Structures are given as C-alpha cells and as structure tokens.
Amino acid sequence: MIVNAPTDQTLIDQCLAGRRDAFGQLVERYQHRLFHGLLHALGSAEDAQDVAQEAFINAFTKLASFKGEAAFYSWLFRIALNAAVSAKRKNRRMTVSLEARREASGLEPMDDNSSNEPSHAMHVSERQRLVRQALSELSDEFRTALVLKEMNGMSYEEIAAVVDVPLGTVRSRIHRARLELRAKLNILLRAEEE
Hints:
Layout: H1 8-16, H2 20-42, H3 45-61, H4 72-91, H5 98-105, H6 118-136, H7 140-150, H8 156-163, H9 167-193
Helix pairs in contact: 1-2, 2-3, 2-4, 3-4, 4-8, 6-9, 7-9, 8-9
C-alpha cells in the first residue's frame, strides 16, 4: 500500500458519496489477495475468478451496509465465501485439479532455474501435489479456516468475523485441520513410497 493512499473507510465514504472510482481503488487494492484466498479455498482458478467478481459486485451493491465493525477485507471475504457456497450449490460439479489439467494437456511444470536438478523439481512438484490433495480432502469448514490463517495471514479474530463463528470455534477448526492435514499427508507420503 502506498504511504499516502486513502484508507479503506475513506474510499468507502467517497464511493457512498457518489464517486464510483473510489470503489475501483478498493478492487485494485484487494483483487489479488481475494483471488488467491479463493483459489486456495476453491481449488480452481476459474471458480476463484468468478466468485471474486461476484463478490465485488455484491460488495458494491451492499456497501451502504458495511458498518466498519470488521476490516473491509474481512467483510469482502465473507461475501465471497457466501458467493462460493451459492456457486457450489448451483453447479454441484467436480472441479478438475491442476494435475488432471496438466495430464490432459500434456504440459509439464517447468523449472526456470537451471541450477536445480530435474529430480529436485519433480520432487517439489510431487510434494505440492500431495499437499493440495490432502488439503482438498479436508472438510470445507476446516479447509477454509486453515487457508485463511496460513495462506491469507488472517488473525483468528478476522477469521471468526469472516466465517461468522465464535473465536474458540476458529481455533478448534484450525487445530483440527492441521492435525487432519498432517495425518492425510502421512498416509499419502507412505502410499507414494510403496
């Protein structure tokens, strides 16, 4: 963020006063963060883009209801989660993993750093695939809480506001998500070694 950049609340006030370009600044400020948070939560770039776009539209239309009790991004992410749940209900389709798309297209991930051995790049890629697989096997509640904490860097309080549950529930979900993720990874790693 630029040092002299207006605060979120200033931009919200300007937008509510009729300056629609102020909301554009909020979109620019949070679009990448929201997309990446949704990408980890949904597992599909297309779904993450669609949900992010819908979330910004909904946020714009509901901006007058923003009370400032939570950070704007937390409020926006809550809208995005609701949009994601709605999209899942509408579609009820299986998302194709990145690995399946890579296999279908025949394209392999490339390592641009020539100093690395090919086996190292393959090993890292395989570990990442296993982590994504294990993460996708977690329940939505656990995966969302863990992604918000570990990949979006949100505090427990922010997560509680976003998912609208008590702070203790957030702590419990993250703890259980970490335990389940560790157990699932151990199983997957053992299966790979066999």
